[in-house]
Amino acid sequence: MTLDNAGTDRRPGALARLWQQAIVLTLGFVALLYAIEGIDTATGHELDQGGVRPRSLEGLEGVAFGPLLHADWEHLIGNTLPVIVLGLLTLLTGIGRGLAATAIVWVVGEFGTWLTGASGTIHLGASVLVFGWLTYLISRGLFTRNLWQILIGVLVGVFYGSILWGVLPGQPGISWQGHLFGAVGGLLAGWVLSGDERRRRREGTPAPVVPPFGQV
Protein backbone atom coordinates (compact mmCIF):
# COMPACT_ATOMS: atom_id res chain seq x y z
CA MET A 1 0.00 0.00 0.00
CA THR A 2 1.30 3.46 -0.89
CA LEU A 3 0.27 6.28 1.41
CA ASP A 4 1.38 9.88 1.51
CA ASN A 5 1.86 11.64 4.86
CA ALA A 6 -1.81 12.65 4.92
CA GLY A 7 -2.85 9.01 4.96
CA THR A 8 -4.15 9.13 1.40
CA ASP A 9 -4.09 5.88 -0.54
CA ARG A 10 -2.21 6.58 -3.78
CA ARG A 11 -2.60 3.14 -5.34
CA PRO A 12 -4.15 3.17 -8.84
CA GLY A 13 -7.88 2.67 -8.59
CA ALA A 14 -8.08 3.50 -4.89
CA LEU A 15 -10.39 6.46 -5.47
CA ALA A 16 -12.69 4.39 -7.68
CA ARG A 17 -12.83 1.66 -5.02
CA LEU A 18 -13.67 4.22 -2.35
CA TRP A 19 -16.58 5.53 -4.42
CA GLN A 20 -17.80 1.99 -5.09
CA GLN A 21 -17.67 1.05 -1.41
CA ALA A 22 -19.35 4.29 -0.33
CA ILE A 23 -22.16 3.89 -2.88
CA VAL A 24 -22.76 0.23 -1.95
CA LEU A 25 -22.86 1.02 1.78
CA THR A 26 -25.14 4.04 1.33
CA LEU A 27 -27.63 2.31 -0.94
CA GLY A 28 -27.48 -0.81 1.21
CA PHE A 29 -28.43 1.27 4.25
CA VAL A 30 -31.32 2.88 2.38
CA ALA A 31 -32.50 -0.54 1.23
CA LEU A 32 -32.41 -1.69 4.85
CA LEU A 33 -34.56 1.27 5.89
CA TYR A 34 -37.15 0.42 3.24
CA ALA A 35 -37.15 -3.26 4.18
CA ILE A 36 -37.69 -2.40 7.84
CA GLU A 37 -40.52 0.00 6.99
CA GLY A 38 -42.11 -2.71 4.87
CA ILE A 39 -42.04 -5.11 7.80
CA ASP A 40 -43.29 -2.38 10.11
CA THR A 41 -46.24 -1.64 7.83
CA ALA A 42 -47.09 -5.33 7.50
CA THR A 43 -47.14 -5.74 11.30
CA GLY A 44 -49.34 -2.71 11.97
CA HIS A 45 -46.38 -0.51 12.94
CA GLU A 46 -45.45 -2.65 15.91
CA LEU A 47 -41.76 -1.99 15.26
CA ASP A 48 -42.27 1.70 16.00
CA GLN A 49 -42.36 0.81 19.68
CA GLY A 50 -38.63 0.23 19.33
CA GLY A 51 -38.00 3.97 18.98
CA VAL A 52 -36.51 6.12 21.71
CA ARG A 53 -38.86 6.46 24.69
CA PRO A 54 -37.32 9.15 26.87
CA ARG A 55 -36.12 8.30 30.36
CA SER A 56 -37.68 4.84 30.43
CA LEU A 57 -35.41 1.84 30.87
CA GLU A 58 -37.08 -0.15 28.09
CA GLY A 59 -36.92 2.94 25.88
CA LEU A 60 -33.13 2.70 25.84
CA GLU A 61 -33.41 0.12 23.05
CA GLY A 62 -34.32 3.05 20.84
CA VAL A 63 -30.72 4.25 21.06
CA ALA A 64 -29.85 1.22 18.94
CA PHE A 65 -32.90 1.08 16.70
CA GLY A 66 -34.41 4.59 16.52
CA PRO A 67 -32.67 5.76 13.29
CA LEU A 68 -33.79 2.61 11.48
CA LEU A 69 -37.50 3.20 12.12
CA HIS A 70 -39.96 5.64 10.56
CA ALA A 71 -43.52 6.63 11.37
CA ASP A 72 -44.78 5.89 7.83
CA TRP A 73 -43.71 5.80 4.20
CA GLU A 74 -44.02 9.57 3.84
CA HIS A 75 -41.60 10.02 6.73
CA LEU A 76 -39.09 7.61 5.18
CA ILE A 77 -39.38 9.04 1.68
CA GLY A 78 -38.77 12.54 3.08
CA ASN A 79 -35.52 11.33 4.65
CA THR A 80 -34.31 9.28 1.69
CA LEU A 81 -32.58 11.90 -0.46
CA PRO A 82 -30.73 13.57 2.46
CA VAL A 83 -29.63 10.13 3.69
CA ILE A 84 -28.24 9.26 0.27
CA VAL A 85 -26.49 12.58 -0.35
CA LEU A 86 -25.12 13.31 3.12
CA GLY A 87 -24.44 9.67 4.00
CA LEU A 88 -22.48 9.20 0.78
CA LEU A 89 -20.45 12.39 1.29
CA THR A 90 -19.66 11.32 4.84
CA LEU A 91 -18.36 7.93 3.69
CA LEU A 92 -16.32 9.61 0.97
CA THR A 93 -14.23 11.31 3.66
CA GLY A 94 -12.93 7.76 4.24
CA ILE A 95 -14.90 4.59 4.87
CA GLY A 96 -13.53 4.01 8.36
CA ARG A 97 -13.77 7.69 9.23
CA GLY A 98 -17.30 7.94 7.86
CA LEU A 99 -18.48 4.90 9.80
CA ALA A 100 -16.88 6.27 12.97
CA ALA A 101 -18.61 9.63 12.43
CA THR A 102 -21.92 7.84 11.94
CA ALA A 103 -21.45 5.85 15.14
CA ILE A 104 -20.71 9.01 17.14
CA VAL A 105 -23.74 10.80 15.69
CA TRP A 106 -25.95 7.76 16.30
CA VAL A 107 -25.04 7.35 19.97
CA VAL A 108 -24.93 11.06 20.89
CA GLY A 109 -28.11 11.88 18.98
CA GLU A 110 -30.20 9.03 20.30
CA PHE A 111 -28.95 9.11 23.89
CA GLY A 112 -29.40 12.89 24.01
CA THR A 113 -32.97 12.39 22.81
CA TRP A 114 -33.55 9.75 25.48
CA LEU A 115 -32.36 12.18 28.15
CA THR A 116 -34.29 15.26 27.03
CA GLY A 117 -37.38 14.11 25.10
CA ALA A 118 -40.86 14.54 26.52
CA SER A 119 -42.14 11.67 28.64
CA GLY A 120 -44.66 9.42 26.93
CA THR A 121 -43.34 10.15 23.42
CA ILE A 122 -41.56 7.93 20.91
CA HIS A 123 -38.75 9.33 18.77
CA LEU A 124 -37.67 7.64 15.55
CA GLY A 125 -36.26 8.39 12.13
CA ALA A 126 -32.97 8.68 10.26
CA SER A 127 -33.09 12.49 10.47
CA VAL A 128 -30.88 12.18 13.56
CA LEU A 129 -28.16 10.90 11.24
CA VAL A 130 -28.97 13.49 8.57
CA PHE A 131 -28.43 16.38 10.99
CA GLY A 132 -25.25 14.78 12.31
CA TRP A 133 -23.78 14.13 8.89
CA LEU A 134 -24.60 17.70 7.90
CA THR A 135 -22.76 19.31 10.82
CA TYR A 136 -19.90 16.81 10.48
CA LEU A 137 -19.35 17.77 6.85
CA ILE A 138 -19.65 21.49 7.57
CA SER A 139 -17.34 21.43 10.60
CA ARG A 140 -14.68 18.99 9.43
CA GLY A 141 -13.06 21.43 7.03
CA LEU A 142 -12.97 24.14 9.70
CA PHE A 143 -11.31 21.79 12.20
CA THR A 144 -8.76 20.46 9.68
CA ARG A 145 -8.35 23.79 7.84
CA ASN A 146 -8.36 21.77 4.64
CA LEU A 147 -9.40 23.95 1.71
CA TRP A 148 -11.20 21.15 -0.12
CA GLN A 149 -13.09 20.08 2.99
CA ILE A 150 -14.10 23.68 3.68
CA LEU A 151 -15.41 23.97 0.12
CA ILE A 152 -17.45 20.79 0.52
CA GLY A 153 -18.77 22.10 3.84
CA VAL A 154 -19.82 25.38 2.23
CA LEU A 155 -21.62 23.61 -0.61
CA VAL A 156 -23.38 21.24 1.79
CA GLY A 157 -24.36 24.22 3.95
CA VAL A 158 -25.79 26.07 0.95
CA PHE A 159 -27.95 23.14 -0.14
CA TYR A 160 -28.95 21.68 3.22
CA GLY A 161 -28.09 24.26 5.88
CA SER A 162 -31.65 25.53 6.09
CA ILE A 163 -32.78 22.27 7.70
CA LEU A 164 -30.80 23.23 10.80
CA TRP A 165 -33.83 25.27 11.84
CA GLY A 166 -35.20 21.85 12.76
CA VAL A 167 -33.12 21.88 15.95
CA LEU A 168 -35.51 24.47 17.39
CA PRO A 169 -38.51 23.38 19.46
CA GLY A 170 -42.11 24.18 18.63
CA GLN A 171 -42.81 22.05 15.55
CA PRO A 172 -45.56 19.52 16.36
CA GLY A 173 -44.63 15.94 15.58
CA ILE A 174 -40.96 16.81 14.96
CA SER A 175 -38.25 15.44 17.24
CA TRP A 176 -36.24 18.61 17.59
CA GLN A 177 -34.28 16.85 20.35
CA GLY A 178 -33.13 14.23 17.86
CA HIS A 179 -32.19 16.92 15.37
CA LEU A 180 -30.35 18.97 17.99
CA PHE A 181 -28.34 16.13 19.49
CA GLY A 182 -27.69 14.61 16.09
CA ALA A 183 -26.16 17.95 15.08
CA VAL A 184 -24.14 18.02 18.32
CA GLY A 185 -22.92 14.50 17.55
CA GLY A 186 -21.80 15.66 14.10
CA LEU A 187 -19.78 18.51 15.57
CA LEU A 188 -18.21 16.14 18.07
CA ALA A 189 -17.37 13.69 15.29
CA GLY A 190 -15.80 16.48 13.25
CA TRP A 191 -13.63 17.45 16.21
CA VAL A 192 -12.62 13.95 17.27
CA LEU A 193 -11.89 12.67 13.77
CA SER A 194 -9.77 15.67 12.83
CA GLY A 195 -7.34 15.00 15.69
CA ASP A 196 -4.42 13.98 13.47
CA GLU A 197 -4.69 17.08 11.32
CA ARG A 198 -4.96 19.36 14.37
CA ARG A 199 -1.95 17.69 15.97
CA ARG A 200 0.13 18.21 12.82
CA ARG A 201 -0.86 21.86 12.83
CA ARG A 202 0.19 22.31 16.48
CA GLU A 203 3.51 20.63 15.76
CA GLY A 204 4.09 22.77 12.69
CA THR A 205 4.21 19.76 10.37
CA PRO A 206 3.06 20.79 6.90
CA ALA A 207 0.13 18.78 5.60
CA PRO A 208 -0.32 18.47 1.83
CA VAL A 209 -3.46 19.82 0.28
CA VAL A 210 -5.38 16.75 -0.87
CA PRO A 211 -8.82 16.35 -2.44
CA PRO A 212 -11.64 15.75 0.04
CA PHE A 213 -12.32 12.30 -1.36
CA GLY A 214 -9.82 9.50 -1.68
CA GLN A 215 -8.73 9.05 1.92
CA VAL A 216 -8.89 5.67 3.62
In short, what is this structure?
This protein has 216 residues and is mostly helical. 62% of the residues lie in helices and 0% in strands.
What is the CA-atom radius of gyration, in angstroms?
Answer: 18 Å
Task: Please indicate the percent range of residues in DSSP E strands (runs of 2 or more).
Answer: under 5%
Distance between the termini: 11 Å
Number of helices: 8
Class by alpha and beta content:
mainly alpha
Helical residue percent band: 55-70%
- Low-confidence runs (pLDDT<50, min 5 residues)? 1-8
Q: What is the 3D shape?
A: globular
Q: Biggest sheet: strands, sense, closure?
A: none
Give the tally of β-strands: 0
Mean pLDDT: 88
Q: What is the succession of H and E elements?
A: HHHHHHHH
What would you note in describing this structure?
The protein has 216 residues and is mainly α. Helix content is 62%, strand content 0%. It is built from 8 helices and no strands. The longest helix has 29 residues, at 14-42. It starts with 13 loop residues before the first helix and ends in a 13-residue tail after the last helix. Residues 1-8 have low confidence and may be disordered.
